[in-house]
Design brief:
Shape: globular
CATH class: Alpha Beta
CATH topology: TIM Barrel
Catalytic activity: 1-(5-phospho-beta-D-ribosyl)-5-[(5-phospho-beta-D-ribosylamino)methylideneamino]imidazole-4-carboxamide = 5-[(5-phospho-1-deoxy-D-ribulos-1-ylimino)methylamino]-1-(5-phospho-beta-D-ribosyl)imidazole-4-carboxamide
Structural class: alpha/beta
Strand order of the largest sheet: 1-3-4-5-6-9-10-11
CATH superfamily: Aldolase class I
Organism: Rothia aeria F0474
Subcellular location: Cytoplasm
EC number: 5.3.1.16
Strand content: 15-25%
Number of strands: 11
Number of domains: 1
Helix content: 25-40%
InterPro entries: Aldolase_TIM, His_biosynth, HisA/PriA, Isoase_HisA-like, RibuloseP-bd_barrel
Distance between the termini: 34 Å
């Protein structure tokens, strides 16, 4: 593989909102709100650092504890008003039925990340894919090779069967999360990601587990296979690196790293980060 085959990896810094504040979930669970900041300030910070996308998550909707739709609306409005470049917004969090997708559509986002729990309602999912296919990214949360729904006990089919069904149903894009690594800063779950990339020609977004710039380097090496983007959460909030540094790695402008080094790197055997759905 030659260096020119490596594309630019889009980065989507996450702003996860609970009870009106931006917070961090861990491993698909919400453990209090010890780290909370103003969500508008968080989003504007990422925009000013060079973000082209924001991944905006309603955690309360995801965990069935109410909604933050008005807060998300405020964040989107402020981001679009206060930034000179056109920042794109991907809305996420508990979007799995008629009511939740109507709330998401009301925000007029650039993309809606439907949660993997929507697979439990195949006829509804087929319908929304038909109506809004290009606007949707299908969340595929994976644990031990099975599609699950974060924050619930729901377990779906094996990853292969789920992707094959979604391909037939008209899915246009996927967001893949290894749930065991979400928020744990232990490295991205490359296995389910590579699996999905092998099964589809559609764009794929990675989410969860990134702990270092090296992780971003490795994921950028997968752009040749169809990896389009990465949702970044905890690693940014805990200061593992800055968004500016992450963007340099993702765009291939960081210095001193050869393609050979990218390909030779092996992921750690333990388990890392991202945003709730």
């Amino acid at each position: 593989m030659h260096s020119q085959h490596f594309g630019k990896l889009q980065l989507l810094p996450a702003v996860d909102i609970s009870e009106g504040r931006a917070v961090r979930p861990l491993g698909g669970q919400l453990l209090g709100t010890s780290q909370s900041v103003d969500p508008v300030a968080a989003a504007i910070t990422w925009c000013e650092a060079g973000a082209e996308w924001i991944h905006l998550v309603d955690l309360d909707l995801a965990f069935g504890r109410g909604t933050n739709t008005s807060v998300l609306e405020q964040v989107i409005e402020e981001v679009r008003d206060r930034t000179s470049n056109r920042i794109k917004i991907q809305v996420s969090g508990g979007i799995k039925d008629h009511r939740s997708i109507e709330l998401a559509l009301s925000l007029r986002p650039d993309r809606i990340n439907v949660t993997s729990a929507a697979l439990a309602q195949p006829s509804w999912l087929e319908q929304v894919l038909e109506e809004h296919g290009e606007l949707l990214a299908l969340g595929v949360d994976v644990r031990d090779g099975v599609v699950v729904a974060r924050g619930t006990d729901w377990r779906g089919d094996a990853l292969d069967a789920s992707i094959m069904w979604l391909e037939r149903a008209g899915a246009q894009r996927y967001v893949v999360t290894d749930v065991s690594r979400d928020g744990a800063l232990s490295g991205p779950g490359l296995e389910p990601l590579q699996h999905v990339l092998a099964l589809t020609g559609k764009p794929v977004i990675a989410s969860g587990g990134v702990a270092s710039l090296n992780d971003i380097r490795v994921l950028r090496g997968m752009t040749a296979q169809g990896l389009e983007a990465l949702v970044l959460g905890k690693a940014l909030y805990t200061g593992r690196f800055t968004l500016e540094q992450a963007l340099q790695e993702a765009h291939g402008t960081a210095e001193g790293v050869s393609v050979q080094e990218q390909l030779a790197w092996k992921p750690p055997t333990e388990q890392a980060e991202s945003s709730g759905e």
